[in-house]
Amino acid sequence: MSAAAARIPVITIDGPTASGKGTIAHRVAQALGWAVLDSGALYRLTALAVQQQGVDEDDENAVAQAAQRLDVAFQGEQVLLSGIDVAGLIRQESVGNLASKIAAYAPLRQALLERQRAFRLAPGLVADGRDMGTVVFPDAPLKIFLVADVRARAERRCKQLKEKGFSANLTRLLEDMRERDERDRTRANAPLLAAADAKTVDSSALSIDETVNVVLDFWSSLGFPAAQ
């Protein structure tokens, strides 16, 4: 990483699935006038490409090669894969479950590492994922580890899916989420855990606005302006 890039501030927001990382990251970035990185989308996009292209999901190198070939662009709410908006498709549970599985592959994580770091552009970046503070941006001045009760997260995801027109079963979602949490925590490569210097925020009983304000307060407490 260049010296210039190292001077660009980053706020990382890590946490388990459906903890609200993406929503909070976008709101914080909007308040600060910064860019946002949804790292999970890159893994979901890879999973979708694997499904669409018939790539062997158990072949770690083939999956990594699929990731290297991704033609991706983020435009507001749109997530473009080869020019097609797949924002809805990558939120399907089958894609999310496959993304969780392949995220454990070392070749894939390495393939996406520099692509993620390339999002670090002035005036700043809010990056959400599972290893943003521990692996991708370990020098970030503020690292948030966002948690929430697993039932609260399952209920949020169920509501999100139904609002997007997808069928969703709360009991099945809760089971899938517990399995995914365990897989993310115990994987050998970049397991889900809080960075040693991260601030843990429990959003179970907080609104989106309240959670955003907690993050911005942490940021301003470091001596930086809270918002534009």
TrEMBL record:
The keyword Transferase applies. Residues 11-217 form the Cytidylate kinase domain. SUPFAM superfamilies: P-loop containing nucleoside triphosphate hydrolases. One of its GO terms (cellular component) is cytosol. GO terms for molecular function: ATP binding; CMP kinase activity; dCMP kinase activity. Pfam families: Cytidylate_kin (PF02224). GO terms for biological process: nucleobase-containing small molecule interconversion; pyrimidine nucleotide metabolic process. The keyword Nucleus does not apply. Its main location: cytoplasm. Its EC number is 2.7.4.25. InterPro entries: Cytidylate_kin, Cytidylate_kinase_dom, P-loop_NTPase. Gene3D superfamilies: P-loop containing nucleotide triphosphate hydrolases. Keywords: ATP-binding, Cytoplasm, Kinase, Nucleotide-binding, Transferase. It is an enzyme of class 2 (transferase). ATP binds at residues 15-23. It catalyses: dCMP + ATP = dCDP + ADP; CMP + ATP = CDP + ADP. It is found in: Cytoplasm. Belongs to the cytidylate kinase family. Type 1 subfamily. HAMAP family: Cytidyl_kinase_type1. This is Cytidylate kinase. It comes from Pollutimonas bauzanensis.
